């Protein structure tokens, strides 16, 4: 009996390690491939809709981003995104695999759709709570250098027009890459790093709690997203990749379809998450401030309609989510197969 237990223990640790490593590799590969589109999605979600100079259209916006910021603009925030997504994806895949075993009593019960949904939802919540501060800082870095048209907080008397114009110009220059003050001021350059932005948020938004702004909204949105994603993918694998038809294209198609379905159904939560993450920026130039998730939801519907809850979905869905999720699942299974000894 001791020998059997010892054998189980030796197999158990490498198995969990393979889930963790494969999950981290899947996350890094999937996010790097679509980094420019990820940043564009965030910009379109948070930019004011009442000003000129908005980022409109996928390819036109990408060309504009390239002209204004070059390759670094495409990768802006991707470093911290990978730093976040590696542990996020590793925790998510590992938790999902372990929860499936737990819900099925390690193979003695059937793994049905409700169990897959529950496993995915809990895995999503676990991974979000573990890495949320990195996600918030990444969002701030993604929009910090974008030339988003900013709004004045309130109208001032005509005698103050000159002062208002100067203040608005100074505010815009703080977040525009081409601004000369950004290139000349050391403090502003420091804020455009992972550590610098983290310290800025903590300094201006109440310390460590400021790094968790919007956590509840994010968890509520991620739980169904991850649950639907995993359940749909595994259901599609049973139909699209039966024995003898397990090609790379079929595997990628399963991931792409699963990601598109889950993202479309839960996208409004993602919009709320980004809004909550940037509403605390001290400059207030994005033109809105919310007192909570429900306040944000009411405000978006009142000012933009239901369409406002799906801002950025088009560049996000066909050219980001589909290839990202497809790459993620394919990389995960590939690395896991290489690591797990038959």
In a nutshell, what does this entry contain?
The protein is mainly alpha-helical.
How would you characterize the overall build of this protein?
It is globular, with a radius of gyration of 22 Å. The chain has helices at residues 2-33, 35-46, 58-74, 78-103, 113-144, 161-174, 180-184, 186-191, 194-204, 215-240, 248-278, 293-304, 313-339. The chain is an all-alpha fold and 342 residues long. The protein is built from 13 helices and no strands. Helix 2 runs antiparallel to helix 13 and helix 10 packs antiparallel against helix 11. Helices cover 73% and strands 0% of the residues.
Structural class: mainly alpha
- Write the element-wise H/E pattern from the N-terminal end onward: HHHHHHHHHHHHH
> Outline, from the CA principal axes?
globular
Report the sheet with the most strands, covering strand number, pairing sense and barrel closure. Answer: none
Uncertain parts: 1-12, 152-165, 167-184
- Beta-strand residue fraction: under 5%
Q: Helicity range of the residues?
A: over 70%
Total number of helices:
13
Average pLDDT score: 78
Radius of gyration: 22 Å
Distance separating the two termini: 23 Å
Question: Could you give the count of β-strands?
Answer: 0
Topology:
Elements (H helix, E strand, L loop, with lengths): L1 H32 L1 H12 L11 H17 L3 H26 L9 H32 L16 H14 L5 H5 L1 H6 L2 H11 L10 H26 L7 H31 L14 H12 L8 H27 L3
